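Hello again, I could really use a second opinion on something today. I've been staring at a protein lately and its backbone has me curious. Can you walk me through what the tokens say about the fold? Take your time with it, there's no hurry, and the full record follows here:
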Amino acid sequence: MNKSQNTDNLEELFLIPREIPKYLLKQILELVYDIEVTGLDFIPKTGGAVIISNHTDYLDVPVQGVYTERKIVYLGKYELFHPQTDILEYIENPKSPFSMPPLNLTKPLIKTLLNKMGDSFGKNLIHWGGMPIIRNAHGSNMDKKQAMDYYAKLEDYMVDILKSGEILSIYPEGTRTESGVMGPFKAMAAKIAIRAGVPIIPSGISGAHNMSKAESFLSGAAFKAKIRYNIGQPIPPTDFPTTPEKKAAKELTEELERRVYFLKDHPERRGKPRKFITKL
């Protein structure tokens, strides 16, 4: 066994089984909020799928992930997987107390510990279903061509994840709503589902907007706030539009936006399987 294998085996000892944080998080959520989840039977037992939802609050991800039996893969900004970065930048700042005696003597040890803890946390996030991405690549150190190449590879990676049999969660609005009103959907979810040949599961959440903010806890609004998460009838690849890919993704996205709009408030509009395109 080589050194690399020894390191991998050692790192596996620090991976926490997904069931543990899932159980603990569920207890915390139900202690604070009144959560109702419907349509769990629509989640396929096996095989790849894209699950989509409107995005109202930080709570959307844990509610979806905790109450769904299967592991869901999430896209997350790179910084979430490297929580030590900001602290390390502070320590390295010449104006930081760690740049002066006697704290400067502890800097190497602290940096080592922070990197070990941060790396362990990041590996656990990946183990639980997280997938780090670089958000806003156009605004990073990449030039336009590099950013386009990055997003093309990211899209290919997501398609590979789906083809391997995983469920991938995407919020087609691209970001959380500030006003509580659902924003227009981007076509990426539809595009990768078409490419991978997997079903899309629409879902909608309501009641979570702003409920993770400190103000909601201080005012008492968060406690026992009613949060509803409704999962709808999947759209199988056989019901996807048969037009060219770009047009098909646009048409499918419009349909998904309609379904999610009703699911977030009206689970009774979930409907039976029907051919594309549904007129809600």
